[in-house]
Write a structure and sequence with these properties.
Elements: H1 2-20, E1 29-33, E2 37-40, E3 53-61, E4 71-76, E5 84-88, E6 96-98, E7 102-107, E8 113-124, E9 133-141, E10 146-148, E11 150-156, E12 161-163, E13 171-172, E14 177-179, E15 183-186, E16 192-201, E17 205-207, E18 214-218, E19 231-241, E20 246-250, E21 254-257, E22 263-272, E23 292-296, E24 313-320, E25 324-328, E26 331-333, E27 340-352, E28 355-356, E29 366-370, E30 375-379, E31 384-387, E32 402-406, E33 410-411, E34 416-425, E35 432-442, E36 445-447, E37 459-464, H2 517-544
Parallel strand pairs: 1-10, 2-11, 13-24, 26-37
Antiparallel strand pairs: 1-3, 3-8, 4-7, 4-9, 5-8, 6-7, 9-11, 12-15, 14-21, 15-20, 16-19, 16-22, 17-21, 18-19, 20-23, 22-24, 25-27, 27-34, 28-33, 29-32, 29-35, 30-34, 31-32, 35-36, 35-37
Length: 547
């Protein structure tokens, strides 16, 4: 009896424990990803050496937390026997091992977002035949998590669209036009059924013609829809494009420099229909014209994936003779001790050019604001940082004697930059003077840009309680969380900016020269090598995103 009671008690306690144990959240599921297909050049390849193709697998942690347990990833290589040979990429970490039958990788944690699991190099096996296929599948496992596998279909052979670079002129003037010839070949082993031509241009360059078999869209930003992003044209060219043949576009494709053109770019590419990148809000015109292709004589020298998509794309940079006049905005404030006022400090671009550091992504300009005596900054906008009076770093942003504000990598033509501040007037200082300056970044502040034609208007006065009056905002009572009024900047004369004046952009600022040819060469060499990777990588990752 005693034993029975004891067993009943244990069972009862276990039931209570089960009832009171909190339920665990569902295990997270992580998605593995890789290209849908990859094509391999037939063995042995050009020059008698196998040509390798990169295949990268990634893992996506779509949660908002790091998964801090060990994960193991495996690729079974046995299906590739007789089809492809596999090696690890040279930069691959030591967390991956390769045997004749498998690739195994370990990760000690999975950060949020996506990250690389393994980068492989594949080449066609010695005895492989054109058309041979195999599946390459990545799986994962970890305690407390599940993984959705990723499979890449590997095929020996396939089409290979190769686009010739167009002979374009980099130096131009606003209004200049030039043709964009499109010539490509299929250097693969399989035909392509339907080709999509894509042309993307920046804000200062555009295509003149419109065709019914093309769709057009503008990649805009919500904050400044008229000067950000690229314009995209995608044209479907139907037909079958055979291996060993060369084709050219029949019909005009004309690039024209806008009045605000300065440093711009064009990228153009050909894709097998269905492989083209997605473009938002494509619009079709109704002009009655069709863009077509025609076979050309080659030079001396079922739809499957392109063998080498990197040679489908060409790009070109333009340097247009133009200027952009940045004008600092003067401000005059008035208030009593203890009052808080709101004021917008900044500048405007009188144009005529837009300025965009598309490759480097660095800020076009900096606004340097010196706060007058007797005032303390109590609210600072985004993109502004408090510094010491000499421009050196400062830990506390509020109450600083000086502020640096950044523009981002695009300044549109005729665009205003106004950074809203709140200042408390701690003591009344008659005719207290500060300043607002705009220009190129320097360690201690700013200096005028070389492409700015009027350096005299790069600096303006910031005055509180000016002698003889001035613009007077309605003060906000001390302690109020929401300012009720703002200062109205006084007007300044507008300098005339003359296109083609010879005032050039600095090559080391990733802007093309608008002056000497030597400076343009510097842009084409040093700047493109140093900073070009960002644009190229972003564009080609976009193109590869379809996989």
């Amino acid at each position: 009896m005693r034993k029975r009671i004891s067993l009943l008690a244990v069972c009862g306690l276990a039931a209570v424990a089960l009832a009171t144990t909190p339920a665990h959240a569902a295990d997270p599921e992580f998605r593995l990803a890789g290209p849908a297909e990859t094509g391999l050049r037939p063995h042995p390849g050009a020059g008698g050496q196998p040509q390798k193709t990169s295949v990268e697998f990634r893992v996506l942690n779509g949660t908002d937390k790091t998964f801090d347990r060990q994960s193991t990833f495996t690729i079974d290589l046995t299906p590739l026997k007789g089809v492809a040979d596999v090696t690890l990429a040279e930069h691959q970490s030591s967390d991956c091992t390769l045997t004749a039958t498998a690739v195994t990788c370990k990760r000690w944690a999975l950060w949020t977002g996506d990250s690389t699991v393994v980068d492989l190099k594949l080449s066609a096996a010695k005895d492989s035949t054109v058309g041979a296929t195999a599946d390459l599948t990545l799986t994962g496992k970890a305690e407390g998590a599940t993984f959705k596998a990723a499979t890449t279909k590997v095929r020996v052979g396939g089409p290979d669209l190769v686009l010739e670079p167009a002979a374009l002129k980099s130096e131009q003037k606003p209004g200049d036009k030039q043709d964009l010839p499109i010539i490509f070949a299929n250097k693969g082993t399989d035909p392509v059924r339907g080709v999509v031509l894509e042309v993307r241009t920046t804000h200062g360059i555009g295509l003149v013609e419109r065709y019914d078999n093309c769709s057009y869209s503008e990649d805009t930003g919500a904050d400044r829809p008229w000067n950000t992003g690229w314009t995209t044209a995608q044209c479907l060219l139907e037909g079958e494009y055979l291996p060993g043949k060369v084709y050219g576009v029949e019909g005009a494709l004309t690039l024209k420099a806008a009045p605000h053109a300065f440093v711009d770019a064009v990228t153009y590419a050909v894709y097998a229909n269905g492989d083209q990148p997605k473009a938002d809000k494509l619009r079709k015109p109704a002009g009655g014209k069709q863009l077509t292709l025609k076979e050309r004589a080659p030079k001396a020298s079922a739809q499957v994936v392109d063998l080498d998509p990197w040679n489908n794309v060409q790009e070109f940079d333009f340097a247009t003779r133009n200027t952009a006049d940045l004008v600092a905005t003067p401000v005059s404030l008035k208030g009593k001790a203890g009052e808080t006022v709101r004021a917008d400090f900044g500048f405007r671009n009188n144009g005529p050019a837009w300025v965009a550091y598309l490759r480097s992504g660095e800020d076009v300009a900096r606004t340097d604001i010196v706060i007058p005596a007797g005032a303390k900054v109590t609210k600072v906008p985004e993109r502004c940082q408090g510094v010491n009076a000499d421009g050196t770093h400062r830990e506390q942003t509020l109450g600083a004697p000086r502020y640096f504000c950044s523009t981002g990598h695009v300044v549109g033509e005729k665009e205003n930059f106004a950074y809203p501040f709140e200042l408390k007037i701690e003591s009344v200082v008659e005719d207290a003077k500060g300043s607002v300056s705009v220009g190129q970044w320097t360690p201690g502040g700013t200096q005028p840009q070389q492409w700015d034609p009027n350096h005299a208007n790069n600096k303006a006065a910031l005055v509180i309680n000016a002698k003889g009056g001035g613009t007077t905002p309605s003060p906000t009572p001390t302690g109020s969380a929401t300012p009720s009024a703002s200062a109205t900047p006084t007007a300044t004369p507008t300098a005339s900016a003359t296109p083609g004046s010879g005032t050039g952009a600095k090559a080391n600022g990733n802007l093309a020269s608008t002056g000497t040819s030597a400076e343009t060469i510097a842009f084409g060499g040093a700047a493109l090598v140093a900073a070009g990777g960002a644009l190229v990588l972003a564009f080609r990752r976009r193109a590869a995103g379809r996989a």
